Amino acid sequence: MTTVHTAPAISAAEQLRRRRVTNESIHSLKMEGLTVSDWHLANIDVFVTGDIELDELIARGRGASASE
């Protein structure tokens, strides 16, 4: 089976902006003594690449928090 990779739906500049914003958020959480799980980091990567939008990222995070 061959995996087909498609071009991201967002520009490289937008990916860079999303990475910067999420890195700042993660840093803020760590400064407050909180941790970010590998599951959350994986979902952040999906957001940065443009495969999901912010509202979906937030919904996934809330769903994970509710199940913990």
UniProtKB/TrEMBL annotation:
Residues 18-60 form the Antitoxin VbhA domain. CDD domains: VbhA_like (cd11586). It comes from the Bacteria. Signal peptide: none annotated. This is Antitoxin VbhA domain-containing protein.
